[in-house]
């Protein structure tokens, strides 16, 4: 558009008008002055008195002089104003020229609008946008709306993009350049508009986008080319716009790529018309899955599974669809083969069924016969199991009654051994004692097996010190070993283990019993080995050893491995069977190793434990100390069996004890006053008559006394509940049949405190 730059003409024109008016006024006054002078000089007819005339002329002359001076002063002022005006005009022109030069030096297009948004001034760069497109530049006074409308309608602006993140709109001009429009308000309310050329930025951004798209396309092509499926994208115009190598290899005709071709040119006519109904469905926005057989140009026939997925834009219009084709020829052949095989198998099954139908009737008859036999066998097995369980429960239940007379006989024979009747009588007594030992061992073993099988015995697991247990067992079996001409070595230990002390002692006793029984000469060792988290309790012997193929057999019931030439023993072969049952119950591993001719070692693995702090039983008082063993000890014996009372009294009196025996609390009260009579220890049986028990009787007695007496509770009850209850009361528990040596050791321990 033309240069519409204007000058500041409005102030200059006002000054020139003012100067013109002053000059006209000055000329008018000059004319008045001249006219007055002429009138005074020429007006003789009307002249006044000479003095008056002179006076009047003087006045007029003075007025003219004043007017002339005022006019001259005004003229001087006007001249000064003209000079200042000229200087201002020159400065304004210089400033205007500088402004024009500055605007022209701006690399961006510059347009200035007044407060009414009318075009005032623009630079060469803005005019070049219009001239390059062969358009007239908008003249001065054109509104900003008209400028925008003319730029769009004339084709100067090809595209407009409004970006909220940028300062203004971005335009693509007809010359291919990109400009960004930025608007700034002026102080007077006008508007400055800058058009910045951002073509290079746009080109750089476009290059980056093109590079990213090319990289993305490369990766997509790499991925799709390695997928064992035909992948393509078809536009809404039915042309193939993308495809992978597998698609190109299958549908490429004469080595030409199907890219850019219409589907009608890609597929054979027959296949194309078969595909068209599915193509029309996907172009309506529906996903399509179908399969059928097709043949390519090389004559290769494959069975294809096709999936068409529509590509929908933001306005809901379908712009094309994705194609995924998988070759399922092998799967189809496999399915057909399986179907054929199924048909063949079904036919063969029918033939076999017809052949087996005749056999079924025979088999059914045999099955019925076998079922009847199995039913009879099952009934017989159930009867045997019931009889065995009944036997087991019976033996477990009657153990107390079975052990009562044996316990009494044991006490009597032990009492007899304390007296001297001559060698012959002592031999008879020892023979009776030995026979009782055999009966006790056999009966105890049978009862133990029965109780283990019946589940009567329950382990009472707790932490305890091995010192007392090993010392007592060693003391008990050292005499037995000496009697057989053997040496029993013992390595004491104070290890703390977690187990049932009585059941663990039973395992060790059975180990030692077997070692003494089968070792003809030599020595036996009892000790333990400490490990990180367990203790290995072991019994070594120098016996004949056990064959390797018999090491597991010895733990079976009624199995005994007797070396050749050895004397027969009276055992039942249940000792190690009991060990096996107890170890399984406790969760302790039992192992055995042996070398024939050298000896064997039996081991039981017991976990390490931790002792709990002991609680002192309320009212517990130290026992009376007797310096001379049991001599003079005052003991009360309470048992409902008169024979046991008499036997226990005889045995204890043989140990120099003062014994009072009673079958009940009433019987004891008839003989003495339980509250005030002196007593050092109470020996009570747990099972008494009339639904009484020894715990309640002892509690009644000690409840009356100022100082409770120590208690030894004797019972054939092996339940954990009773064992725990007696332990909590602070009593000593002994199981029947009572061994005199063990009883004396316990009494000595209690009486000595």
From TrEMBL:
Domain annotation PAC: ranges:
288-340
Q: What is its EC number?
A: 2.7.13.3
Q: Which UniProt keywords apply?
A: Coiled coil, Kinase, Phosphoprotein, Transferase
Tell me the GO molecular function terms: histidine phosphotransfer kinase activity; phosphorelay sensor kinase activity
Q: Which InterPro entries match?
A: CheY-like_superfamily (IPR011006), HATPase_C_sf (IPR036890), HATPase_dom (IPR003594), His_kinase_dom (IPR005467), HisK_dim/P_dom (IPR003661), HisK_dim/P_sf (IPR036097), PAC (IPR001610), PAS (IPR000014)
Q: Which residues form the Histidine kinase domain?
A: 397-610
User: Which top EC class is given?
Assistant: transferase
Q: Does the keyword Coiled coil apply?
A: yes
What GO terms fall under cellular component here?
plasma membrane
Which of the residues bear the PTM 4-aspartylphosphate? Answer: 685
Annotated catalysed reactions: ATP + protein L-histidine = ADP + protein N-phospho-L-histidine
CDD domains in alphabetical order: HATPase, HisKA, PAS, REC
Domain Response regulatory as annotated: residue spans: 634-751
Query: What does the record list as coiled-coil region(s)?
Result: 19-105, 335-383
Write the protein's name. histidine kinase
Give the species this sequence originates from. Marinobacter panjinensis
């Amino acid at each position: 558009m033309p240069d519409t730059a204007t000058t500041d003409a409005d102030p200059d024109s006002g000054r020139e008008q003012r100067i013109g008016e002053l000059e006209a006024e000055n000329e008018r006054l000059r004319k008045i002055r001249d006219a007055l002078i002429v009138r005074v000089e020429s007006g003789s007819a009307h002249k006044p008195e000479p003095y008056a005339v002179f006076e009047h002329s003087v006045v007029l002359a003075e007025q003219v002089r004043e007017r002339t001076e005022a006019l001259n002063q005004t003229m001087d002022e006007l001249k000064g104003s003209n000079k200042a005006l000229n200087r201002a005009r020159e400065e304004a022109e210089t400033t205007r020229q500088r402004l024009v030069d500055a605007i022209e030096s701006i690399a961006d297009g510059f347009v200035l609008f007044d407060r009414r948004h009318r075009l005032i001034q623009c630079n060469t760069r803005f005019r070049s946008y219009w001239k390059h497109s062969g358009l007239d530049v908008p003249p001065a006074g054109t509104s900003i709306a008209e400028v925008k409308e003319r730029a769009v309608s004339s084709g100067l602006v090809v595209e407009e993009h409004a970006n909220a993140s940028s300062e203004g709109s971005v335009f693509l001009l007809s010359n291919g350049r990109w400009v960004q429009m930025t608007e700034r308000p002026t102080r007077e309310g006008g508007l400055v508009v800058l058009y910045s050329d951002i073509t290079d930025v746009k080109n750089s951004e476009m290059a980056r986008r093109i590079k990213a798209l090319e990289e993305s396309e490369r990766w997509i092509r790499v991925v799709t080319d390695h997928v064992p499926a035909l992948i393509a994208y078809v536009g809404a115009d039915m042309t193939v716009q993308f495809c992978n190598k597998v698609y190109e290899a299958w549908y490429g005709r004469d080595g030409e790529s199907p890219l850019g071709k219409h589907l009608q040119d890609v597929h054979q006519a027959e296949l194309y018309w078969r595909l068209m109904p599915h193509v029309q469905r996907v172009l309506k926005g529906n996903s399509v899955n179908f399969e059928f057989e097709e043949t390519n140009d090389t004559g290769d026939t494959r069975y294809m599974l096709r999936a068409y997925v529509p590509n929908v834009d933001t306005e809901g219009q379908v712009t094309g669809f994705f194609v995924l084709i998988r070759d399922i020829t092998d799967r189809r052949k496999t399915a057909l083969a399986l179907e054929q095989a199924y048909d063949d198998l079904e036919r063969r099954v029918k033939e076999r069924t017809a052949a087996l139908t005749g056999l079924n009737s025979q088999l059914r008859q045999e099955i019925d016969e076998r079922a009847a036999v199995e039913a009879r066998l099952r009934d017989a097995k159930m009867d045997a199991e019931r009889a065995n369980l009944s036997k087991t429960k019976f033996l477990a239940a009657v153990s107390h009654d079975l052990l009562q007379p044996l316990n009494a006989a044991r006490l009597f024979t032990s009492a007899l051994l304390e007296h001297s009747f001559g060698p012959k009588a002592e031999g008879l007594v020892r023979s009776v004692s030995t026979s009782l030992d055999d009966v006790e061992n056999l009966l105890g073993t049978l009862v133990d097996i029965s109780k283990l099988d019946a589940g009567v015995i329950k382990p009472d697991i707790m932490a305890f010190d091995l010192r007392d247990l090993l010392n007592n067992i060693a003391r008990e079996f050292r005499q037995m070993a000496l009697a057989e001409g053997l040496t029993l070595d013992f390595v004491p230990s104070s290890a703390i283990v977690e187990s049932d002390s009585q059941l663990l002692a039973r395992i060790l006793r059975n180990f030692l019993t077997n070692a003494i029984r089968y070792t003809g000469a030599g020595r036996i060792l009892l000790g333990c080995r400490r490990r990180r988290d367990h203790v290995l309790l072991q019994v070594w012997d120098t016996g004949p050893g056990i064959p390797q193929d018999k090491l597991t057999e010895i733990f079976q019931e009624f199995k005994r491995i007797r070396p050749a030439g050895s004397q027969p023993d009276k055992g039942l072969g249940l000792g190690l069977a009991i060990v096996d049952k107890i170890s399984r119950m406790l969760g302790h591993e039992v192992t055995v190793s042996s070398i024939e001719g050298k000896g064997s070692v039996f081991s039981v693995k017991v976990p390490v434990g931790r002792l709990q702090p002991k609680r002192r039983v309320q009212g517990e008082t130290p026992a009376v100390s007797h310096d001379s063993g049991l001599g003079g000890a005052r003991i009360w014996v309470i048992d409902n069996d008169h024979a046991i009372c008499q036997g226990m009294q005889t045995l204890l009196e043989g140990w120099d004890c003062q014994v009072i025996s009673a079958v009940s609390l009433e019987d004891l009260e008839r003989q003495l006053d339980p509250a005030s009579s002196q007593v050092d220890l109470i020996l009570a049986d747990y099972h008494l008559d009339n639904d009484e028990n020894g715990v309640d009787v002892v509690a009644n007695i000690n409840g009356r006394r100022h100082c409770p007496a120590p208690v030894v509770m004797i019972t054939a009850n092996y339940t954990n509940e009773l064992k725990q209850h007696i332990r909590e009361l602070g009593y000593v528990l002994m199981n029947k049949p009572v061994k005199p040596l063990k009883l004396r050791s316990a009494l000595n321990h209690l009486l000595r405190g």
